[in-house]
Amino acid sequence: MSSQDIAAAMQRMEDVLKRRPQSGLHDDPPATAVWTSGMRVVSSHANGTTAATDMPVALGGTGDHVSPGWLFRAGLASCATTCIVMAAAAAGIELTRLEVVASSRSDTRGLLGMRDENDNPVFAGPGDVSLSVRIAAPGVSPERLRALVEESQRCSPIPSAVRCALPVALAVEVETA
Question: What is the DSSP letter of 121?
């Protein structure tokens, strides 16, 4: 799909949402994760797409698949990239390169439920998360491209959820044997 096609689709959607704002609110397709064996989990989308995860050997997995943490970073990078593409298309900017790297730094002690030297629980999630963007568009100033990237991330769902520390509701159903 060309930048013009993307911009036109976005404009059509915006026109619809201006007329009927309530139509913008929707349930997102759930991701269903099923444990298969060992540390292996297969997550699926209603459309049939699946993604398998496993843990590294040091944590009891085989290391044959990506970890759930990597999948999180992949989703973060993919979402950020998509929103940059959308912003560029809306601005009439033809990108020739776009690469987003999502990085994080974590403490494995948190995953294991361990406590630190002061007897405080170690945080299980990443302590630092960063996005590095490499972008190019002929005839567009570096300042304009930086501004485009920064503006696009205010509308990027996954980076926004991370920035705002979205609470997670937990429901548990226990089956009897």
Answer: B
Instruction: Tell me the residue type at 161.
Output: A
Beta-carbon contacts of 10 under 8 Å, excluding residues fewer than 6 positions away, are 86, 89, 90
Give the domain range for residue 141. Answer: 3-20+67-163
The upper half-sphere exposure of residue 176, i.e. CA atoms within 13 Å in the direction of its Cβ, equals 0
Cα–Cα distances (Å) from 155 to 2, 37, 158, in that order, read 21, 38, 9
pTM beyond 0.85, yes or no: yes
Query: Which residues, at least 6 apart from 59, have a Cβ–Cβ distance to it below 8 Å?
Result: 39, 108, 111
Nearest to 73 by CA among 42, 41, 95, 105: 105
| Residue 51 in domain | no
pLDDT in tens, 111-167: 999 999 999 999 999 989 999 999 999 999 999 999 999 999 999 999 999 998 888
Residue 44 tokens read as 């699926």
CATH number of the domain to which 142 belongs: 3.30.300.20
Task: For residue 66, list its beta bridge partners.
Answer: 53
Gap between the Cα atoms of 11 and 86, Å rounded: 11
